[in-house]
Amino acid sequence: MSFKKHYGGSNNNAFQMQAEIQLLSPLLPVRQLSFLRLLVHHGHPLLLGSLVERKFRDVEAQEDNLRRQIITFKSDCDEKDKEIILERQSLSERQKILQQEHERLLQSQTLLNEREDHLFNHLQRELEDTKKEFEKEREALHDEKTNLKLMDATLRQREEVLAKQETELNTQEQELVEFQGKLASR
Predict the structure, then answer these.
(1) Which spans of this chain does the record mark as coiled coil (predicted)?
(2) Angle at CA 105, nearest 5°, toward 103 and 111?
(3) What angle do CA 118, 121, 111 make, to 5 degrees?
(4) Which pLDDT band, with edges at 50, 70 and 90, does 135 fall under?
(5) Any idea where the domains of the chain sit in the sequence?
(6) Residue 2, helix vs strand vs coil
(7) How many C-beta atoms lie closer than 10 Å to residue 175's C-beta?
(8) Which of 53, 62, 132, 136 would you label with 121, given CA atoms 20 to 30 Å apart?
(9) DSSP character for 27?
(10) Residues 74-94: what's their mean pLDDT?
(11) What's the predicted TM-score (pTM) here?
């Protein structure tokens, strides 16, 4: 549809055209918009028609180009989103694997700690038992030593008693020999 047919030539349509140009203004350079507004304001229909139609085609071409760029951008964004999703899934799987490995290591550490505790407790009990046995043996040896000292003291006392008795017997024997010698001499 041509621009002239669409807007006709009335001033009311000029305001409508100006409103549409203002809608398109982000797509047009500021100088071109100012120029178009000036033309619309002064009402140059021949210049306005051909120029606006050409500008309108330029704007449509720019819009088509922007649409393509937007579509390309959206497509690129979708691809990046897919890549990010895949990367997140990959990271999530790696994290699960690391978590499982961490849990396995914790279980292994727990088992190792339990074994160490068991061995330590077992060795500690054995050491305590051995210590008690050594203590009992030491006490038995101490008791035996005490008993031997008592026996030694007792034997010394007996020996002293026997030595005294022997001395007395020797004395009595000498007296007896003397007495016998006196008897024999009489």
Answers:
(1) 88-182
(2) 105
(3) 20
(4) very high
(5) 18-83
(6) coil
(7) 10
(8) 136
(9) G
(10) 94
(11) 0.39
